[in-house]
Amino acid sequence: MLYIQNRILIFSLLFLITFSISEKSFSQTDTTEKRFQIGFVPQYIIYHGLRIDFEPLIKQGKQSLQFSPQFFYDENDIYYSNNPTYDENEQLYEKLVGYGIGLRHKIYTQFVKDQKWLVYITYGGEYTHFTMDYKSWEWVEYTEEGLNYYDYELITVKQNTDRIRVDISMGIQFNYVENMFLDFYLGAGGVYSINNMNPKSAKPILKDGMYDYAYTGIYIPVGFRFGLRF
């Protein structure tokens, strides 16, 4: 996974460099009406995810609908102590798999000549499902010679989490390079997560931070996108 993340980061840097160089050399006006955008959100890499925005333009390019499939995957090799008093809550998960979809409506509120940059407001939400495997010390029941016993064992726990986000953001999109765009945004929203674990049993590392997989509360959508326009 680290290999893939490094390659995506390199691709992102190359895109930004290309955008910067092309912006200085591109002098012709692009008069072609754009009907579709595909955007990539690189900050999702930090959380072992991949998000791609498919964005058909409507209302003569003054609005758009944004469909955002998301995928997450990560694995960790973790050492576990044989001491039951060891605080395993500080450990990471062993495996993470996630998938989801987002839907947002974008309204462009300000245009400049030739649409070189655009100001917009976007609102909507997304749903994501995560499955996380990790080790936890638990009481396990077993039967021996007709009698029931309990043993304190380190077992694999599977935590399933459903996360819902709703948000509203404001952003600015730069279209200085033909068929390419760069987009910065900032907003506010809320998150609600449901999981199959007792709240006290769920790992703090998965739910304490604003952008964690099982977090519930207020969050701030902030970041940038880049992509292609057709």
Question: How is this structure best described in words?
Answer:
It is a single chain. The chain is mainly β and 230 residues long. The chain has one domain: Beta Barrel (Porin), CATH 2.40.160.20. Helix content is 10%, strand content 56%. It contains one helix and nine strands. The chain has one helix spanning 2-25, and strands spanning 36-40, 49-58, 63-75, 95-111, 117-144, 147-174, 180-195, 217-219, 222-229. The protein has an eight-stranded antiparallel β-barrel. A hairpin with a 2-residue loop joins strand 5 and strand 6 (147-174).
What are its keywords?
single chain; about 230 residues; mainly beta; Porin; 8-stranded antiparallel barrel
List the helices and strands and how they pair.
Elements lengths: L1 H24 L10 E5 L8 E10 L4 E13 L19 E17 L5 E28 L2 E28 L5 E16 L21 E3 L2 E8 L1
Antiparallel strand pairs: 1-2, 1-9, 2-3, 3-4, 4-5, 5-6, 6-7, 7-8, 7-9
Poorly predicted sequence stretches spanning 5 or more consecutive residues: 15-29
Structural class: mainly beta
Mean pLDDT: 81
* Domains, number: 1
Span between termini = 31 Å
- Second CATH tier, the architecture: Beta Barrel
The gross shape turns out to be elongated
Sheet having the most strands: 8 strands, antiparallel, barrel
Query: What would the CATH topology be?
Result: Porin
* Strand adjacency order, main sheet: 1-2-3-4-5-6-7-9
How many helical stretches? 1
